[in-house]
Write a structure and sequence with these properties.
Blueprint: E1 15-16, E2 19-20, H1 26-42, H2 46-60, E3 66-68, H3 70-76, E4 80-85, H4 96-109, E5 113-118, H5 122-134, E6 138-143, H6 144-149, H7 151-159, E7 163-167, H8 174-186, E8 192-194, H9 205-213, H10 215-228, E9 234-238, H11 243-249, E10 259-267, H12 278-281, E11 283-287, E12 290-294, H13 319-326, E13 331-336, H14 337-351, H15 357-369, E14 378-383, H16 391-398
Parallel strand pairs: 4-14, 5-6, 5-8, 6-7, 9-10, 9-14, 10-13
Antiparallel strand pairs: 1-2, 3-4, 11-12
Helix pairs in contact: 2-4, 4-5, 4-9, 5-7, 9-11, 10-11, 14-15
Subunit structure: Tetramer of two alpha and two beta chains.
GO molecular function, one term: tryptophan synthase activity
Cofactor: pyridoxal 5'-phosphate
Length: 400
């Protein structure tokens, strides 16, 4: 019996403790409630469950394997590091897990266009892929800075047939892409659906995206127990909005013996303004239709944020993460850009696995922690994506 009480999460109003909800005008609240009703209806039908299961198996390539990073573990001289290989999924990351679910939901609801934001481009590629699969037009909003950093994913989105909208306002990164996509969605919310790319936004999206992503943790728990007869000692994942982390964490929340660590981007340092460590340094506030920890100024306006990983530079965070922080079930730590780059290169050259810069944050934390522990201890890292999209950027930055 766990000492933590998690049910129900969220409640009927979409709150995880004090966080989440729907901070929306009445007409938009009605639209979100319609999405919630449709989701609750479709998720229990055998036809939907069967279609999603078959697509996960035959299209995505699930289950993704768990890999023992033996050479990395030996190099560090401590705990054994294992990787949940979400980078091997079709489209190269965990994002396909919820994008398939959202595209099928849009089809079920008869929507005429799917709109979304993307930072690193992985959500954009996955959603464009899912929309091509089910035959629904797709429009992706992406900050101009991220378009230039993540060119391979931009090309893929165009090839897949989506309409790409460059966003040049503000910092021209993820937060601004969210603003732009939401404005387009508000033009016709009855016929469009905004497929949010993480466990953020107004209810029901934090619940829905978590549910679709929870396949990661269910698989990982079964796989690790089948191999070792027990759970890992520590599980960890990077946290921006927090979808890959909630995907892994959910299956282990009631296992009190498992230490759970979310890793945020410290950017150029927590003592600078150039970071995205929302749970570490943020305060409770409101952003994009829900309540969460926010990096904000004295007027409650979101601050500019920074991470070397385009998918992590968001001034808010998923409401369930905020709740898990407050009840101290999950520990949230941070990793700098430099530590991330070191982990990116180390994993590439020691294990032959090029990670996404987002995922490299979790790898960096595991590399920092492993030498402090005995060789009998295990750390399971959610390797949420592969680094094809980042290779040219890193090569240029490091002068390779």
């Amino acid at each position: 019996m766990s000492k933590f009480d998690f049910a129900p999460m969220p409640d009927k109003e979409g709150f995880f403790g004090h966080y989440g909800g729907q901070i929306l005008p009445p007409e938009l609240k009605k639209v979100m409630d319609d999405i919630d009703r449709a989701y609750e209806e479709i998720r229990h039908t055998e036809s939907f469950k069967t279609e999603l299961m078959q697509l996960n198996q035959d299209y995505v390539g699930r289950p993704s394997p768990i890999y023992h990073a033996k050479r990395l573990s030996e190099k560090l001289g401590g705990a054994q590091i294992y990787l949940k290989r979400e980078d091997l999924n079709h489209t190269g990351a965990h994002k396909i897990n919820h994008c398939l679910g959202e595209a099928l939901l849009a089809k079920f609801m008869g929507k005429k266009k799917v709109i979304a934001e993307t930072g690193a481009g992985q959500h954009g590629v996955a959603l464009a892929t899912a929309c091509a699969l089910v035959g629904i037009p797709c429009e992706i909003h992406m900050g101009q800075v991220d378009i230039e950093k993540e060119h391979p994913n931009v090309t893929k989105m165009k090839i897949l047939g989506c309409k790409l909208i460059p966003v040049t306002r503000g910092t021209a990164t993820l937060k601004d892409a969210v603003d732009s996509a939401f404005e387009e969605y508000l033009k016709n919310p009855e016929e469009f659906i905004y497929a949010i790319g993480s466990v953020v936004g107004p209810h029901p999206f934090p619940k829905m995206v978590r549910d679709f992503q929870s396949i990661i943790g269910r698989e990982a728990r079964q796989q690790f127990n089948d191999r070792h007869g027990k759970n890992p000692d520590i599980i960890t994942a990077c946290v921006g909005g927090g979808s890959n982390a909630m995907g892994l964490f959910t299956a282990f929340l009631n296992d009190d013996e498992v230490k759970i660590v979310g890793v945020e981007p410290a950017g150029k340092g927590l003592d600078t303004k150039d970071h995205s460590a929302t749970l570490t340094l943020g305060t409770p506030g409101e952003i994009h239709g829900f309540k969460c920890y926010v990096l904000q100024d004295e007027n409650g306006e979101p601050l500019p944020v920074h991470s070397i990983a385009s998918g992590l530079d968001y001034p808010g965070v998923g409401p369930q993460h905020c709740y898990l922080k407050d009840i101290e079930r999950v520990e949230y730590q941070s990793v700098t850009d430099d530590e991330c780059l070191d982990a990116f290169m180390t994993l590439s050259q020691v294990e032959g696995i090029i990670p996404a810069l987002e995922s490299a944050h979790a790898v960096a934390w595991a590399m920092r922690e492993a030498p402090k522990l005995g060789k009998d201890k295990t750390i399971l890292v959610n390797l949420s994506g592969r680094g094809d999209k980042d290779a040219d950027y890193v090569a240029t930055k490091l002068g390779l």
